[in-house]
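Practice problem: predict the structure.
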Amino acid sequence: MQSGSQKTPRKKSPPARTSQEIFAQVRRDHAMETAEDYVEAVAKIVAQQGTCRGADLARHFDVSHVTVSKILTRLKAEGLLRARPYGPVELTDTGTRLASMSQQRHETVLHFLLAIGVDKETARIDAEGIEHHVSQATLKRFLAFLGQQPPPTSSR
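Answer:
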């Protein structure tokens, strides 16, 4: 073996996934989008106003009260929040953790897009969609690019 001809071992890529596995992951991500958006919105509204009600969420998302009611029922069943008819909407501990993780992911994606030169308005809009589909591995690369430490590993 000649000196200088040794190659540095490459990192092993994750195993290739089938199209079906990829599409299944995207469907799971889509199912979580609404939950993440709603718990994030509840946390934001509570931080701004002290309390959150269904009407606040309907205004925030520009949807009907019926839509909000159906989603709140689903999120209650998933253990992400507590809400009574005409009462305030409150996050459970699980909902609070999901809101925090989602917000962290959003901020990381937004800062990355701004760092690579995307204009502020486009970055804001794009981050809203990308945050729901970005893997932990990609987030870690974004953070490395930004010179930051990765957030604690999430369940995502």
